[in-house]
Amino acid sequence: MLIDAIKSQITVAMKARDTLAKDILRVALGEIQTAEARAGGPVPDEEAQRILKKLVKSNEETMAIAKDPDTQAKLKRENEILGGLLPKALSVDDIVAALDPVADAIKAAKADGPAMGLAMKHLKQAGAPVEAPDVTAAVKAIRGS
Question: Where are the chain's structural domains?
Answer without folding.
Answer: 2-83, 92-143
